[in-house]
Amino acid sequence: xxxKLNHVAIAVPDLEKAIExxxxxxxxxxxxxxxxxxxxxxxxxxxxxxxxIELLYPLGDSSPITxxxxxxxxxxxxxxxxxxxxIKVARDRMLEKGMRILGQSEPKLxxxxxxxxxxxxxxxxxxxxxxxxx
Length: 134
Prior knowledge:
By secondary structure, the chain is of the alpha+beta class. It has helices at about 15-25, 65-70, 85-95; strands at about 5-10, 30, 35, 40-45, 50-60, 75-85, 110, 115-120, 130-134.
């Protein structure tokens, strides 16, 4: 069902510093910063040949990233994103298997303008999983 790793998301306490590390120290191509109010985050993507790294920064006081950074002040890996062909088929399969979907179980548009869902970390060995329709 999952196709390939789309990105690894890292919550960061200082987005500009994180961008500078990846761009200026590691020499990576980093995208423009984009606000995603529906998800409560500001993001930038480190573009690699085979995948991406998503740098996540809180947007607003109710951002889920604020909660994460309150627990892990220096930041860290927040989630893994896998590509799927059809997000609704993937959702239905996850529900059939007894997996929990965060939110209303309805896909939202993600950072790439494509439908996404998040799967409960307690169902996946403590790892938050994002599914993105390709």
